[in-house]
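Give me the fold.
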Amino acid sequence: MTRPPFPSFPPSDPPFSVKDVTRIQADLYPMGAEINGRKETRHFIADEHWEAEIAEKLDLLERDASLRRCIATDDPAGLAEALWRVAALLEMDEPTLWQTEGCIAQLPRHGLRLIVTNDESRICPEIDAPEATPLGQRIAAWLERQSGVARLFDALALTCQEDIVIMRGSDSGPGDAEALHVCFPSGWDPREKAGRDFTTIHEPVGDNARLLGASANVMKALLTKGPYVRFSFGLSPNPALDNHPVTRPPKPPASIWTDPESAIDRIYVRMERQTTYPMPDLNRGLFTIRVYVDPVKARLARDPSLRPRLASLIETAIPEVRDYKGITEMSPVLLEWLASSGITTEG
């Protein structure tokens, strides 16, 4: 019997920076708050790009999973329990993506069933599932080749558009990145973060004094308070979601930034929507990262009110932050283009 098709996911609705001044700081907002005119209530949000982004995640894992999935734990059972909590959040936010009932976890849109077991992997994919989509069949075959808690981690990551990080409290510091499943990093290497504490993870960040000074409080909030949502703003010459330093395209030549009219077509707004969810009884917390990439020209055409805000974000970024975000070379030409369009922050 053929099941009826699922309703289509809504169009993509990328967020924008909350503040119009560039400062490196935590800026955690309570989940449920209204931010930039919309109420933020969910950790997981699927949109029209869901299937394409899941397929891209699988492609990246098949090429080299070690670049994306990094686990540093001495407690796989505790990590697995944390991931099942994440699965429950995903089911609550997007029930057509994940449903758990008894010893069966279903991935309805993939047409897959995962048999919940008592061994370390905790799930066994149903191979030759009659209702599996072509993408679902590929995912089942991939999961069958994985073992341990990595199998459950991959199943979750290949069902949602968000990247997933599990932080764990540490006796020696504010906390460690116990497990990262990050297919779409914004210029950083997940392998360098696994098992590291909050301070070490954020040491490379430009203008990081405020962030590092708040590290203990931020980790306490992530592990015991919230949930929270925050946003990270960036610009990129790379339209891809994947901006891993090993696989991203080479840096474009400086000559492309000489003409505003042609350069503007090479600049993209790269926004991250990040959420946290505490699991204090497990001494762990969830951190999700959702990446949105839009051509700056198209984004501003859809919402002209963002033009002066974008100019302010660029102008208030100190050189250290511009270098860290990789926008030093493109900033002058973008500001010139904004000014030629009548956009200025000078009052």
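Confidence is low (pLDDT under 50) at residues 343-347.
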